[in-house]
């Protein structure tokens, strides 16, 4: 890992940090994202590494990553020869990560690594520090689907996150490595949080900025991806009925019962509709 000096009054992460970046056809973005991370991360972590997972990209992403790795020892590419999906890319990155804390962020420039300043004061105090998008810059259909999905996750899994799929989170590394992950696609966030809840992990949520995509093509909101996510959600719910937390879990929780969160989820849904109608 690359070493850096602590600077000023910036909140420091109490240990080494691994930043995991899933990359699929992001040649217009990935170089800028990593260069920005190389400039920012030394302010927060005494040791850090950037694990960039090239998930079967067909553009120039692989060459950019190789060039950056040669120039910067902190950059560690991981390669999937074929596209295996968002969840599989994150899982490979988590397996390669060696940090005391593991962060992941999308590589499409819709997040700014500088917002780590908002999460850093809580790292070390909570097992998971999860960002939520204060203003989501995505098409309307993606925002509506996200609201519905957040309510669904609350009902089925008892996971109470404002923005389950926000790709800006920091985890205690040993917690993340204790979770066996199987979701190949976008459901990876739900699987992590559902299993972390069963372990009794502590959680803090922090608002972060979300910017319009200025280059590359988004695929997460396509009907095919949404349909697959719905199918995977039901399959995960079925598997979680018999899931047993590992013996190392500090505060294991019982399996979630659907009935105990329906009323709360209905209240959340009403609030979401009001926010949309009010434009807030």
Provide an overview of this structure.
With 280 residues, this protein is of the alpha/beta class. It has one domain (7-139, 158-253): Spore Coat Polysaccharide Biosynthesis Protein SpsA, Chain A. The chain has nine helices and eight strands. The protein has helices spanning 30-40, 61-71, 86-96, 116-119, 140-157, 173-177, 188-199, 223-240, 262-278; strands at 2-3, 17-23, 47-55, 75-80, 101-105, 128-133, 168-172, 203-208. Strands 1, 2, 3, 4, 5, 6, 7 and 8 form an eight-stranded mixed β-sheet that branches. α2 links the parallel β3 and β4 (75-80). It starts with a strand and ends with a helix. 41% of the residues are buried. Residues 3-8, 259-268 and 272-280 have low confidence and may be disordered.
Roughly how many Å is the radius of gyration? 18 Å
Mean pLDDT over the full residue set: 87
Q: How many β-strand runs?
A: 8
Please provide the ordered H/E string of secondary-structure elements: EEHEHEHEHEHEHHEHH
**First-to-last CA distance:** 42 Å
Low-pLDDT ranges: 3-8, 259-268, 272-280
Tally of separate domains: 1
Question: For the record, what is the CATH homologous superfamily label?
Answer: Spore Coat Polysaccharide Biosynthesis Protein SpsA, Chain A
CATH class, anyone? Alpha Beta
């Amino acid at each position: 890992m690359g070493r850096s000096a602590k600077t000023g009054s910036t909140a420091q992460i109490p240990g080494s940090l691994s930043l995991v970046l899933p990359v699929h056809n992001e040649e217009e973005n990935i170089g800028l994202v990593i260069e920005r991370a190389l400039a920012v991360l030394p302010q927060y972590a005494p040791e850090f590494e950037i694990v960039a997972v090239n998930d079967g990209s067909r553009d120039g992403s692989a060459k950019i990553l190789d060039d950056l790795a040669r120039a910067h020892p902190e950059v560690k590419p991981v390669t999937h020869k074929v596209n295996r999906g968002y969840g599989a890319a994150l899982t490979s990155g988590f397996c390669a990560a060696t940090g005391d804390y593991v962060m992941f962020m999308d590589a499409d420039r819709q997040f700014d690594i500088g917002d780590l300043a908002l999460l850093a004061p809580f790292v070390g105090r909570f097992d998971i520090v999860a960002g939520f998008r204060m203003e989501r810059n995505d098409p309307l259909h993606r925002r509506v689907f996200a609201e519905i999905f957040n309510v669904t996750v609350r009902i089925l899994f008892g996971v109470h996150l404002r923005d389950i799929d926000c790709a800006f989170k920091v985890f205690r590394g040993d917690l993340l490595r204790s979770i066996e992950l199987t979701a190949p696609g976008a459901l990876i966030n739900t699987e992590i949080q559902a299993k972390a809840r069963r372990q009794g992990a502590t959680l803090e949520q922090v608002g972060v900025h979300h910017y319009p995509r200025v280059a590359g093509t988004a695929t997460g909101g396509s009907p095919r991806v949404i349909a697959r996510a719905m199918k995977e959600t039901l399959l995960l719910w079925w598997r979680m009925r018999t899931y047993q937390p590992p013996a190392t879990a500090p505060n294991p929780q019982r399996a979630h019962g659907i009935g105990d969160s329906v009323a709360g989820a209905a209240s959340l849904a009403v609030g979401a509709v009001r926010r949309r109608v009010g434009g807030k």
